[in-house]
Design goal:
Elements: E1 10-14, E2 35-36, E3 39-40, H1 41-51, E4 56-61, H2 67-71, H3 76-84, H4 88-95, E5 102-107, H5 114-119, H6 122-125, E6 130-133, E7 137-139, H7 145-156, E8 159-165, E9 175-181, E10 187-195, E11 206-214, H8 218-224, H9 235-244, E12 249-253, E13 258-260, H10 264-276, H11 284-293
Parallel strand pairs: 1-4, 1-6, 4-5, 8-12
Antiparallel strand pairs: 2-3, 6-11, 7-13, 8-11, 9-10, 10-12
EC number: 2.7.7.9
Protein name: UTP--glucose-1-phosphate uridylyltransferase
Keywords: Nucleotidyltransferase, Transferase
Length: about 300
């Protein structure tokens, strides 16, 4: 692959779901805006994309979720109120999201699957490579998962996935990759994808997480992909079609810090873990130790 191959500078964040695991709060507040103390999940994800150079971000949304794009927009009345009260530090926090990335919103037009959601961004992305970041998890910026994936996609021109290892008895909950090793550390070639296999049928204990770097050539494939599991258009099916026709598929096996907010317990674990790392919450860690001692 030529050293001048284009590098992904655009990202797509599918965020149109109902988030039924978090109802009733998600009837009014998008799950992606649930706070990690005072910073929403979505900001962490957009920061991850921008830090990797993908600072042109498309949110695929649904009715009732306009607050996501509002969060990244200017709010003059609030700015002026904070200025008038001399709250400069708070004003800086409020203004910070406005300059992280260039944000665009597109309505999905119905819950028709992840593949359909990604396909809705075709008009904005065009034929360029792009990253897909699911809206309920992110990886620590210092561990540089997404930059490595983008670099690998530029080298291969194909599809790049992210995998993590899980205990073998958990594989039936996830999409699992069949792989073979490469010469690069923690990079594997993906030879197949199996959705939620029985433990005895799983080709490995490497599961897909919500990070992808894809060539723009996937968009016409998504248009032709028939509904699959759950009657929805599956991104996995389109990727498998491309792989079967010769598109190289590789994955980075990620061993760094990943934060999951996809269901209530995982969200609470992430919230508490990150709260303990903050210097501006005096007394929280001491309280947590005392409270933990009262638990059975």
């Amino acid at each position: 692959m030529s050293a001048t191959a284009p590098r992904a500078t655009k990202a797509v964040i599918p965020a149109a779901g109902f988030a039924t695991r978090f109802l009733p709060v998600t009837k009014a507040i998008p799950k992606e805006l649930l706070p990690i103390v005072d910073k929403p999940v979505l900001q962490y994800i957009v920061e991850e994309a921008a830090a990797a150079g993908a600072d042109d971000v498309t949110l695929v949304t649904a009715p009732g979720k306009d607050a996501m794009i509002d969060y990244f927009d200017a709010r003059a009345d609030l700015d002026n109120a904070l200025k008038a009260k001399g709250k400069d530090a708070m004003l800086a926090k409020v203004k910070a999201p406005e300059s992280i990335a260039e944000m665009t919103a597109i309505r999905q037009g119905g819950a028709k699957g992840l593949g359909h959601a990604v396909g809705r961004a075709a008009g904005h992305v065009g034929d360029e490579p792009f990253a897909v970041l699911l809206g309920d998890e992110w990886c620590h910026l210092d561990d540089k998962l997404l930059p490595r994936m983008i670099d690998l996609q530029a080298e291969t021109g194909g599809i790049v996935l992210a995998l993590i290892e899980v205990p073998e008895d958990q594989v039936s909950r996830y999409g699992v990759a069949a792989v073979r090793p490469t010469d690069a550390e923690d990079v594997v070639e993906v030879t197949g994808l199996v959705e939620k296999p029985a433990v005895e049928d799983a080709p490995s204990n490497l599961i897909l997480i919500g990070r992808y770097v894809l060539p723009g050539a996937i968009f016409p494939v998504l248009e032709e992909t028939e509904p699959g599991s759950g009657g929805e258009i599956q991104l996995t099916d389109a990727m498998e079609t491309m792989r079967a026709k010769g598109t190289p598929v590789h994955a980075v096996v990620f061993r760094g810090r990943r934060y999951d907010t996809g269901e209530p317990v995982a969200y609470l674990q992430t919230l508490v873990e990150l709260a303990t790392q903050r210097d501006d919450l005096p007394g929280f860690n001491a309280w947590l130790r005392e409270f933990s001692a009262t638990l059975d």
